[in-house]
Structure formats: C-alpha cells, structure tokens
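Module 6 notes. Inverse folding takes a fixed backbone as the condition and produces residue identities as the prediction. Think of it as a translation problem where the source language is geometry and the target language is the twenty amino acids. Below is one complete input and output pair. Work through it position by position during the lab.
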C-alpha cells in the first residue's frame, strides 16, 4: 500500500501570505470497499487482540491458579499456603494488640451468647463417648481407613483443603460445627457465658491472648513447631501441642463469617498441613518417635475435624491416626512408648484423650473393646476399694498419675462427681497438691488436675480455679521490654515438661489450662439442688 499524503500541509507556492491550504487526496482512485478496509482494519485487529488477551486472563483466574506466597506469622518465617489474590490482607496475624477481639474488655460479656442455651446443649440422655454406645460403631474396623499408599494422595497439598477463601463450616458465626455440643464453647458467643460461669476473667483472657501471639511467632516456615527443651526431635508432638491452644480459642483453618473470629487462620492452616503431610500410610507420623507424640498430633487433627466437620480434608487423616492408636494398644490394655508394647498410666492418658476427641466427632470410629481394655488397665494400677488413686504401671498413689487417671475415668467410665472414686480422688489431689507457688510448679500436673476439678464443679472447682488462674497469670512473662519472651511461661522444673519440652511446651500447657472454661463443656451437670447426677456412664 502506497504511503498516504497528509490531509493538511503548508503550501506557499502560490500563496504569498503563507496560509495553510487543504490539499485533496486522490481518493477517487480507490473503491468504497478499499477505503472501508483501510479505515477500519487496524482497529479490528487491535480490538481482537485485546479480547483474546482479556479472555485468557479471565479463564486463568477462574481456574484458580494458586499463588503460594502467604503473609508470614513473623517477618523472618513466612508460611506457605494456598490463597486467592483477592483475599484481604492478613496482617492481623502479627497484630500486637492484646486479645482475639480488639475490645478485650468485652471478653466476659455474658449478654453476647449463642441462641441455643448451653445447658440444653450439654444435657443429653446419654453421655458422649459412652463406652457401651455401639449404635454407630461397626463391629469390624481393623482395616486402616484412608491412605492406602503413600502416593495415593498428597496429604500435605494445601490445594486439597479449604483454606483462605474456602467454604464456611457447617454453621455458626465462627464457622464451627454447631452439631458438636462438646466443642460449642469455643464459639465466641458461647465462650463469653462460659468464662463468666466457670470463673474466667478479663486478665485470664489477656494472658491467653499474649500467649497465643507469642506462640504464633514460634512457628517454623514449614508450619511446624519445635520444642526448645531436650525433645527437639519430637516435632509432631510440638506441632500438635502448639495447635491445641489455637483450636481451643476457636481458631480453625476455615473462613468464618467475621474474619475477626479467626485471627490465626493461617497459623492453623500451616500447622495442620505439616501434620497431614507428615502422616504415613499406616496413620503414624514422620517426626513422632513414640506414642506420646503420635497421640498429641492425633488430638489436634481430631479437634480440628470436630470443630469444622471438614470431611474432605481431615476425616481420612484423623481416622487413620486413630486406627494406629487402636492397633498399637498393648496386651494389658495400656500403651507403651512403641506400638503394641505395654506401658504406663501417663502414656495411656494421651491415647485416651485422642480417642475421646475422636468420639466427640461422631464421624470417626472408635472400637468398644479398645476402651474396655484401657479401663481394665486403669483398674490394675488403682489403689483402694473405690479406685481413687493411681500408680505408674502397678498400684500406687501419686498426684500426677492420679490426675491423669481420673480424667480418663471421667471420659471412658462415666465417673462424675457422684462416683465415690472421683470424690475420693479429688479429695486426695486437693490434700496433696493445690495450685500455689509454695509447691513445685509443674504444668503437666496442673493441666490434668485442672480438667478434673473443672468437670467436678462446685465449691471444689471454685477454690481450685481461684488459685490456678491467678498463679498462672502471675507467672506469665508480661514485659514488652522482653519481646522474645513476652507472653510465654518459663519452663517448669518437671523432668518431662520443662526439661523435655522447654518454654514452648510449658507455655502450651499453661494456655490450655487457662482455656479450660470453654475448651470442653462438662459431660455431666449439677442441677439447682446440688449433686444430682444428670448422666451416668454406667
């Protein structure tokens, strides 16, 4: 095509005034069709190209191509998660403000509570987790569920789970599963009432808030936590134990209706991803060198599943971990450090907590005979006609092992405050070791004993709680001039928790103890007359 002449140009040949004149273009040499093509073809080409590019962009976004760079829990430890580009900035993860809610002073406002009354939620015809309740338990569940081979699924792929931007839970303002009444206290609305009812305070919730912030900063780039004591290799135990305080506070991997209800969502997403990715085909975990560690990691998976009912992501992992525990039980009904070996009361305590957390989920299977064998083991290490005190692997009486065993009795045998063994056992604990700083500070003991006292209720609980709550608040490091320690607890002096799990483990146990008001709602309740038992396990 010949180069077109400009439509306007200066011409001074016959124009002394140097005025611009219009020069005619030889348009008569072109047909109307040629002029139309020359005029509009460039625009058609450009427009078509833009439409192609725009269509491809929209198609890529709709297919959900992930971006894998997430806001870190702290500046030097970014956590890898699957999220959408249009997700709100999750900068709250490192928000130094105290509390999960910016208005911390309303943390025990009993006016803001769930529509369903807590009392009617927990008062049922049969206690959850009753050993002889086999209505929904298959007779043969020995086959490991889920994960037939290591390559059959990719349990650590975040794209396989609903994380940021994923669907809500089955209901509730926090995205929690409203059908699991035993975990309903973790919903923000119901938590307020339980804090006021069972003796929590603004100061105790501030201590929890400080502790969670410190704990979130200890998370590693792969989503795990590591003990700073002698048990550094037990990464699964450290990760599971660190997840539990966040779960107890109502924090999950799901997106709630109000994002403020899930400040540590990405922390939980990364922690769960580490556990699921570490799981082997038989349900055990890489990085769990004994049954202690396996049980603690299992509790975290079961609680996360029970809180969200996320069957597509968590059910197969939780069930496989529970199956491993059931298959690992020793001949005498206990669990040892290694699978299928006989063990002791302390290890049994963690396995039964895991099995109980599975029972609360209702969608997970726990075999009746496993519970029955464990109950017989507890009988074998009990002392006295009422079986009120307990030893390690033979009959005896130590405060720590008695606290462990009494919590197990509550869960697997239905021992409430009406049972003579529970009454005598609680009396023994109060006589031997109350939560005062005049005694040795041992968070392993206080973690178990506080749960026993909480479920016992009444004046016994009130007196215990006043001492425990105030002691832990006082012992927490609350000094912003020490940013590396602010919100944590110094390692206790015990050989297992302080020496083995260090500051991280001690802090986790202290947090769980201060969250006892709403972490688990009691299975048995007292009526207005006092000690009437509403439910019995046997």
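Target side of the pair, the amino acids:
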């Amino acid at each position: 095509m010949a180069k077109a002449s400009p439509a306007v140009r200066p011409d001074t040949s016959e124009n002394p005034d140097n005025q611009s004149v219009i020069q005619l273009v030889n348009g008569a040499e072109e047909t109307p069709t040629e002029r139309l093509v020359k005029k509009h073809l460039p625009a058609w080409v450009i427009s078509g190209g833009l439409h192609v590019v725009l269509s491809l962009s929209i198609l890529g976004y709709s297919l959900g191509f992930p971006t894998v760079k997430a806001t870190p829990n702290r500046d030097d430890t970014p956590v890898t998660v699957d999220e959408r580009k249009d997700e709100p900035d999750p900068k709250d993860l490192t928000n130094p403000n105290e509390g999960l809610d910016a208005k911390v002073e309303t943390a025990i406002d009993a006016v803001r509570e769930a529509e369903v009354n807590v009392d009617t939620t927990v008062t049922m015809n049969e206690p959850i987790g009753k050993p002889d309740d086999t209505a929904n338990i298959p007779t043969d569940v020995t086959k490991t569920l889920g994960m037939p081979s290591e390559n059959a699924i990719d349990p650590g792929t975040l794209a396989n789970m609903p994380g940021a931007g994923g669907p809500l839970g089955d209901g509730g303002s926090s995205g929690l599963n409203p059908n699991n009444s035993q975990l309903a206290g973790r919903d923000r609305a119901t938590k307020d009432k339980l804090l006021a009812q069972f003796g929590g305070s603004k100061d105790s919730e501030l201590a929890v808030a400080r502790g969670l912030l410190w704990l979130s900063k200890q998370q590693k780039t792969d989503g795990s936590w590591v003990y700073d004591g002698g048990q550094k290799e037990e990464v699964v135990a450290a990760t599971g134990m660190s997840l539990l305080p966040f779960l107890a506070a109502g924090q999950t991997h799901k997106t709630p209706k109000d994002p403020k209800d899930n400040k540590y969502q990405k922390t939980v997403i990364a922690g769960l991803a580490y556990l699921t990715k570490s799981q082997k085909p038989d349900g055990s975990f890489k990085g769990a060198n004994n049954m202690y560690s396996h049980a603690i990691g299992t509790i975290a998976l079961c609680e996360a599943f029970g809180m969200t009912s996320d069957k597509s992501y968590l059910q197969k992992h939780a069930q496989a971990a529970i199956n491993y525990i059931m298959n690992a039980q020793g001949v005498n009904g206990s669990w040892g450090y290694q699978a299928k070996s006989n063990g002791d009361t302390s290890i049994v305590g963690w396995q039964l907590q895991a099995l109980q957390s599975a029972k609360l989920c209702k969608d997970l299977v726990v075999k009746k005979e496993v519970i029955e064998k464990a109950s017989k083991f507890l009988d074998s290490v009990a002392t006295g006609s009422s079986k009120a005190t307990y030893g390690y692997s033979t009959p005896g009486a130590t405060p720590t092992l008695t606290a462990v065993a009494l919590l197990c009795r509550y869960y697997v045998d239905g021992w409430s405050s009406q049972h003579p063994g529970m009454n005598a056992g609680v009396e023994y604990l109060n006589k031997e070791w109350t939560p005062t700083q005049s005694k040795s500070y041992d968070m392993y003991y206080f973690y178990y004993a506080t749960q026993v006292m909480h479920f016992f209720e009444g004046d016994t609980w009130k007196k215990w709680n006043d001492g425990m709550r105030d002691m832990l608040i006082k012992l927490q490091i609350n000094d912003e001039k020490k940013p590396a320690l602010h919100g944590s607890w110094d390692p206790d002096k015990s050989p297992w928790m302080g020496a083995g799990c260090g500051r991280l483990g001690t802090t986790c146990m202290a947090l769980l103890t201060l969250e006892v008001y709403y972490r688990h709602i009691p299975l048995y309740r007292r009526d207005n007359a006092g000690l009437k038992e509403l439910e019995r396990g046997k």
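Reference fact for the lab report: DSSP finds 16 helices and four strands in the chain.
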